[in-house]
């Protein structure tokens, strides 16, 4: 494709035009011919853009055609076109009045659409009627080719748009499945805990059993669907770069910010994670105070961020480890303050070579080889949400706080701007 200002033409269209202009020179002794296309603007008259000239005026090889950004507009007097604007009948009449016997300027029209001009000069002898008929045929061929070229460009654009849409939809579904799994795992763990605490004779025992059974069912359904979905997705083979993905659950609503008491938001999440941590004999140390400044952000997105980071901390920390939560207000330059939230664990840590990639979709680094299940989507969602909320996120492994452990551990730090 070649682009002239806002006009895009395919290589094939240029080739066809070249062949037609050579034809005019060879069969009708045209000395100079040019093709101009119209560039349409919303609020101003269309402009003429030269696309091709033959022979090229200052080309070393006179028979060589070149794309003519540098066409000398004085070769053909098209000023009258600017004056007649877009009025086709007026334009053609004007053309007839202005034309010299040696110069032909024919509009390129297809289905009442004015697409440009074919201009051709012959100073050795004036154009005869039968010659004009032939030039008109050439103009018709170019017009049809331009119409088809435009149509295929529109079709190509639509295909690209559909591809992009499809990719975004696929990513949304991936994210959705991922986000469903986490609360489901928590519900199943809570149901198991409940069963442990109840004696079989308790009238609520069967209710807890039912919760667990339905949870297992839902887990299997999601698992089956994910496997099928992965096969369909890999067959689809959509491989377009530079697609801006957006988490499915917060595309619009993330713009809605509200005043948030961060303690009230995190507290229930910590309570939930503490129960789950107990199952793995992991100690949760909570250094979050209740009198923190109010932040202006999106609560739903923040919960997703914390849940993913806490879930990882538990998942990648072996039995008997520690998970610590630290929240502090930090002064930056010019008295601007930020809230820093640190989630640290005594887990396996993240090797240096993985640290630059873990926010990429589906990247699992060393854990891809482990028995720990995962899709590699959690942190990609976290990063996307952080970017939207203007929150900086950093990884430190070895962990910042929990030193002297058998494993390196990890700290994820979130920097939330305060007003
Ligand atoms: P899921 O999509 O189910 O969350 P996942 O946990 O593998 O799967 P991410 O949450 O995106 O995916 O994490 C990406 C990778 O980063 C993990 O596979 C793991 O290698 C590494 N990682 C993330 N958090 C930690 C952590 N706290 N300790 C050690 N490694 C971690
Ligand atoms: Mg994860």
Describe the 3D structure:
The chain is an alpha+beta fold and 419 residues long. The protein contains 9 helices and 14 strands. It has a 5-stranded antiparallel beta sheet, sandwiched between helices. A hairpin with a 7-residue loop joins strand 3 and strand 4. Helix 1 runs antiparallel to helix 4, helix 4 packs antiparallel against helix 5 and helix 7 packs antiparallel against helix 9. The longest helix is centred in the middle third of the chain and has 69 residues. The radius of gyration is 34 Å and the shape is elongated. About 4% of the residues have low confidence. The structure holds adenosine-5'-triphosphate (ATP) and magnesium ion.
Could you outline the blueprint of secondary structure elements for this entry?
Elements: E1 2-4, E2 7-9, H1 11-28, E3 32-39, E4 47-54, E5 66-67, H2 79-84, H3 88-98, E6 103-110, E7 113-121, H4 129-197, H5 205-236, E8 258-260, H6 262-279, E9 283-287, E10 295-297, H7 299-315, E11 322-331, E12 337-345, H8 352-355, H9 378-388, E13 392-396, E14 410-417
Parallel strand pairs: 9-11
Antiparallel strand pairs: 1-2, 3-4, 3-7, 4-5, 6-7, 8-10, 11-12, 12-14, 13-14
The structure holds adenosine-5'-triphosphate and magnesium ion (MG).
């Amino acid at each position: 494709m070649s682009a002239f200002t806002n006009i895009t033409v395919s290589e094939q269209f240029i080739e066809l035009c070249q062949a037609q202009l050579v034809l005019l020179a060879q069969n009708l002794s045209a000395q100079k011919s040019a093709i101009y296309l119209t560039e349409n603007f919303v609020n101003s008259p269309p402009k003429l853009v030269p696309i091709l000239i033959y022979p090229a005026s200052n080309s070393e090889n006179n028979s060589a055609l070149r794309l003519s950004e540098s066409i000398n507009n004085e070769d053909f007097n098209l000023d009258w076109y600017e004056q007649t604007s877009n009025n086709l009948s007026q334009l053609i009449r004007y053309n007839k009045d202005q034309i010299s016997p040696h110069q032909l300027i024919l509009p390129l029209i297809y289905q009442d659409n004015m697409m440009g001009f074919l201009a051709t000069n012959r100073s050795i002898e004036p154009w005869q009627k039968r010659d004009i008929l032939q030039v008109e045929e050439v103009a018709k061929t170019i017009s049809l080719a331009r119409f088809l070229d435009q149509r295929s460009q529109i079709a190509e654009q639509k295909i690209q748009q559909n591809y992009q849409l499809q990719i975004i939809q696929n990513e949304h579904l991936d994210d959705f499945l991922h986000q469903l799994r986490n609360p489901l795992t928590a519900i199943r763990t809570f149901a198991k805990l409940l069963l442990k605490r109840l004696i079989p004779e308790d009238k609520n025992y069967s209710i807890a059993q039912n919760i667990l059974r339905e949870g297992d069912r839902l887990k299997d359904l999601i698992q089956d669907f994910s496997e099928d979905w992965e096969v369909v997705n890999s067959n689809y083979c959509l491989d377009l770069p530079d697609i801006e993905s957006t988490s499915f659950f917060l595309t619009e609503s993330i713009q809605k910010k509200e005043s948030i008491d961060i303690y009230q938001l995190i507290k229930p999440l910590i309570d939930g994670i503490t129960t789950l941590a107990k199952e793995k004999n992991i100690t949760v140390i909570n250094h979050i105070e209740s009198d923190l400044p109010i932040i202006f952000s999106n609560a739903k997105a923040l919960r997703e961020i914390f849940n993913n980071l806490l879930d990882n901390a538990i998942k990648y920390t072996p039995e008997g480890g520690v998970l610590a939560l630290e929240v502090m207000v930090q002064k930056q330059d010019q008295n601007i303050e930020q809230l820093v939230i640190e989630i640290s664990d005594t887990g396996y840590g993240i090797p240096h070579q993985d640290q630059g990639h873990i926010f990429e979709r589906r990247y699992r680094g060393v854990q891809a080889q482990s028995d720990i299940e995962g899709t590699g989507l959690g942190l990609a969602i976290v990063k996307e949400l952080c970017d939207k909320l203007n929150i900086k996120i950093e990884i430190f492994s070895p962990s910042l706080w929990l030193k002297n452990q058998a494993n390196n551990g990890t700290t994820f730090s979130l920097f939330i701007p305060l007003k």
